[in-house]
Design goal:
heterodimer, A: mainly alpha, two-stranded antiparallel ribbon, 6 strands, 8% strand, disordered N terminus, disordered C terminus, B: 277 residues, alpha+beta, Sulfite Oxidase, Chain A, domain 2, five-stranded antiparallel β-sheet, 6 helices, elongated, binds protoporphyrin IX containing FE
């Protein structure tokens, strides 16, 4: 689970023949004295990403308010019957304002859940139509490759991880997984929202109790992803972050070309 | 978040080896742009992004600060959200569709989770059920034996609480639809809603008629193989797998058929009025 976007280069994107992006000129790129900015994220992905950010935050927060309401069965962290601590310790619940807010939690959750679903659906259609999903699909041996990425990120290995397109193996696995999590959150959400009207769905997910547990663990997964994602984006630097806003990332300065361009800010 | 229709890129950006749909979705984002163009885009993105973020924060704060309508407890926008859901799911309601049922070995005595409306003393022998029409006119009164005279139905269902927990338990009693038939002359079942209130009027729930008339909505007097006890709502309570537990009113004192959406104890405290499952 890692990223190392700072080292992304334009030519990587071009090489991803599966991408439907217009193939720019590969030739002469490296020799060019001119600094250029390279397309990394298309508009559709960028909007979906930034719309998702507040929506997911609201879904997690309101979900945890719902979770608080059933403290008699907390999910514990520990081995078997022995719990190191339960989710979540009182201090955390209090600090986050999760206590006694079930009505609000539900109202937020079930209102914004639709927006979360619509945004997710729009994104899915978009990636399928533009074939952007090819950027995210883990290739053969991705699992093995991602170990190399993790070792590199932990400074245990020198070699840079191989990229194909925007993302290295670990990123592909992580991002694909998180999209899958979104689908699971949605399906289990509907399963526990309408266990009678949608009894087929609920039963196919293992019943109400099971669906509810999955729904909760997916939330824990989102929170874990959130932390890792923020850390990695911070690590990858501002240019990488900003490319999620503008769509483009400026290629690194080349020593010979510094004088020609680059100061027209 | 900005506009990819980039105009004067000096680089080739028109070739496209994707399917035709791509073009319309994508409006041709060029693969590379000049540095000057990048800064131009950056400025524009900064503006668009800043305005969007500010508008979102502003909107969210507005939502949090919104007053609840009189008699409600959550911001009006959230109430609209809940009502929108109610609209969707009541439209999807299918009369003949029943909730899953379970085997006796999975059933246990339901946990007691609330005492609203059953705190006052009660003389079970003196208890009566009053039935009213839309204007409060009394249509009739009943003893428990009247309800027990109707066909008895038993169901083992999974009870769900808004708090999140659930439990499989057994109920037995008369179908509410059979009870409503006693008042077919008054057209009881043609009303839009039913209201149930405890004798002390401390607890009250409203039902939409389709859910009330569903075959799994029972006026229950037995639970888990024995008679209903006081904590579980003796002598008569509601039980239905179509609604959260908050709608399963205990110790029913009166029932009213009406066309106006009845007051509901938990709805006025910010929960969904429909509370359907
Ligand atoms: C990213 C998306 C979502 C997240 C992070 C999320 C999170 C949560 C969490 C943490 C809970 C508490 C679970 C527990 O008590 O064990 C919950 C409950 C619930 N969620 Fe979600 N959820 C999401 C999407 C949805 C969607 C799309 C729906 C659908 C319609 C939904 C419907 C529900 C319902 C009905 C409950 C239980 C309410 C209750 O028991 O009173 N969720 N959610």
């Amino acid at each position: 689970m890692t990223t190392d976007m700072a080292t992304d280069q334009a030519s990587d994107l071009d090489r991803d023949s599966g991408s439907s992006a217009p193939s720019g000129d590969d030739t002469g790129f490296d020799q060019s004295a001119e600094r250029r900015a390279v397309l990394k994220h298309r508009r559709g992905s960028r909007w979906a990403h930034w719309i998702n950010f507040p929506l997911l935050t609201i879904m997690i927060y309101s979900g945890l308010r719902i979770y608080w309401a059933d403290l008699r069965n907390p999910v514990g962290v520990g081995v078997g019957e022995w719990h190191l601590f339960d989710l979540f310790p009182d201090s955390v619940n209090e600090a986050l304002g999760l206590e006694r807010k079930l009505a609000r939690g539900l109202a937020f959750h079930l209102t914004f859940g639709w927006l979360f679903a619509i945004n997710g659906l729009a994104y899915t259609i978009y990636t399928l139509v533009t074939r952007e999903w090819k950027q995210l699909k883990p290739g053969k041996g991705a699992l093995k490759d991602s170990i190399g990425v993790i070792l590199h990120d932990l400074h245990l290995r020198k070699e840079e991880p191989a990229h194909e397109g925007n993302y290295n193996a670990a990123q592909r696995i992580t991002y694909s997984l998180i999209i899958f999590f979104g689908l699971v959150a949605l399906l289990t959400g509907f399963a526990i929202y309408k266990p009678t009207q949608l009894s087929l769905l609920t039963n196919s997910l293992g019943g109400y109790e099971v669906a509810r547990k999955i729904h909760f663990f997916v939330t824990i997964g989102f929170m874990a992803f959130f932390v890792i994602h923020i850390l990695q984006v911070a690590r990858a630097g501002f240019g990488n972050f900003w490319s999620m806003v503008t769509g483009y990332q400026l290629e690194p300065k080349k020593p010979e070309s510094r004088s020609e361009k680059g100061q027209n800010k | 978040m900005n506009d990819d229709q980039n105009n004067n890129s000096t680089h080739d950006s028109t070739r496209n080896n994707g399917p035709d749909m791509t073009e319309t979705m994508n409006e041709e984002a060029p693969k590379t742009i000049s540095e000057a163009e990048f800064y131009r885009k950056s400025r524009r993105s900064f503006l668009v992004g800043g305005v969007t973020a500010a508008a979102t924060a502003f909107g969210y704060r507005g939502l949090l600060n919104q007053e609840a309508a009189p008699g409600d407890n959550i911001p009006t926008t959230l109430r609209s959200g809940l009502e929108w859901n109610e609209d969707v799911w009541s439209r999807l309601f299918r009369e003949g569709h029943t909730a899953p049922t379970y085997s006796p070995s999975q059933s246990s005595v339901l946990r007691v989770n609330g005492r609203h409306g059953i705190r006052s003393d009660i003389d079970l022998d003196a208890w009566e059920l009053q039935v009213q029409g839309p204007d409060g006119e009394v249509w009739g009164t009943h003893q428990l034996s009247d309800i027990q005279a109707l066909d008895r139905h038993e169901m083992i269902i999974e009870h769900k609480c808004v708090e999140g927990w659930s439990q499989i338990t057994t109920w037995a009693g008369a179908r509410f639809s059979d009870f409503a038939d006693l008042y077919s002359d008054q057209g009881a079942a043609d009303h839009k809603f039913v209201s149930f209130v405890t004798p002390d009027e401390d607890y009250f729930v409203g039902f939409d008629m389709p859910s009330a008339l569903h075959e799994q909505t029972l006026l229950a007097y037995d639970m888990h193989g024995g008679p209903l006890d006081l904590d579980h709502g003796a002598p008569l309570r509601l039980a239905t797998p179509l609604k959260y537990g908050i709608k399963h009113i205990k110790r029913i004192g009166s029932i009213q058929f009406t066309n106006e959406q009845p007051a509901d104890f938990w709805a006025s405290r910010g929960y969904s009025w429909y509370a359907g499952l």
